[in-house]
């Protein structure tokens, strides 16, 4: 099966590269470092290296506490941090700007044996640490052939993804079974991973709970809130295609006070698309990129109905400035996104019906009275409005959210305990 998979990859490669170039029209980062995706890299010094793969921005932020711990415990080692997306690479560059010599970055090559072999020979990592759900058949097989342990950490697997894996058992199951160890986010994730044949699983929790909200983001959030004024603020965070129209329609139907609606699309290539949607609806809006928060005199016009969050890396700022947060990807059947950052800032959380990618953590937050699930956009807006006009209820829910965040910390230490054994074995 892996042979047929590799052949399919070879035939698809021209289309993949063309798609990469097309995506680069909106995100120029996709047109940079293309040789790295094909297994060609600039010269690097001979170093002991620990390899951490974090696909995009979310996984990179989740990996930060672990990478900091690896840097502290293995001072003679360099960290190779790889990504699939430009925003992931940009996020890693920002997070580890203070470690220019000890953290190097690259795009991971496409999953073809020749590309992976060149990558492994060039960087010679002593271990491969995959964040969350990234298990590529050829990557795992080539690491196994090179005697490089592969450990999947902060791992999650939804029921939907499990069913997909069973449709390609000859491809996915051998890769899963070749993984050296897994640190799972929750017991249900561990059960599903075990069904794939993974034997060495430990439930360690979610490392995103160990990510400390940056102090400067809280300060910028306070500055943004000062610019907004006294009206209530409701953020719809990490929204996906199709959700913004539902949200805007429900928002405009509300009786006053509506407050200020903040929309932060999940993907930067959709900023313009959402701006066009707001314009078509004759909604008075401003872009975050047009606001200079360094200007202490700046004030948001009270007539502005929507603030379009067309910036990356500022989610903590938006949460700090809001009263209530809705987590996107859950109004449409995409599985939702994590609510941890909102909880870390002590904000009440609303979510839609589709949270299968984060079912365990969402259900736990609901039980903790830190979050409320709604059936549709109209119900979300009504709940948000009720929370914004009921300060006691809103503040209690916010305190529950912060307590929920604090109670789930410690996953990084548990993950390190699992990793240390495999790192020691790999450096013998």
Termini, distance in Å?
A: 33 Å
Largest sheet: 7 strands, parallel
Order of the strands making up the biggest sheet: 3-2-1-4-5-6-7
CATH topology of the largest domain: Rossmann fold
Strand composition percent: 15-25%
Q: Can you tell me the overall shape? A: globular
Q: What fraction, in percent, of the residue positions are helical?
A: 40-55%
Number of helices: 18
User: Rounded to an integer, what's the Rg over CA atoms?
Assistant: 22 Å
Corresponding CATH superfamily of the largest domain: 3-Deoxy-D-manno-octulosonic-acid transferase, N-terminal domain
Poorly predicted residue ranges: none
Q: Average pLDDT across residues?
A: 93
Which CATH class of the largest domain? Alpha Beta
Number of strands: 14
CATH architecture of the largest domain: 3-Layer(aba) Sandwich
Task: Write up this protein.
The protein has 428 residues and is of the alpha/beta class. The chain has 2 domains: 19-205 and 410-426, Rossmann fold, CATH 3.40.50.11720; 215-407, Glycogen Phosphorylase B (Rossmann fold), CATH 3.40.50. The protein has 18 helices and 14 strands. It has helices at residues 2-23, 34-37, 57-73, 86-95, 113-123, 137-145, 159-166, 169-178, 187-195, 215-228, 243-253, 271-280, 315-321, 340-344, 359-367, 377-389, 391-407, 411-426, and strands spanning 48-53, 77-83, 103-107, 125-131, 150-155, 181-184, 201-203, 233-239, 260-265, 285-287, 306-308, 324-327, 349-351, 371-373. It has a 7-stranded parallel beta sheet, with helices on both faces. α9 links the parallel β6 (181-184) and β7 (201-203). α3 (57-73) runs parallel beside α4, α3 crosses α18 and α5 (113-123) packs across α6 (137-145).
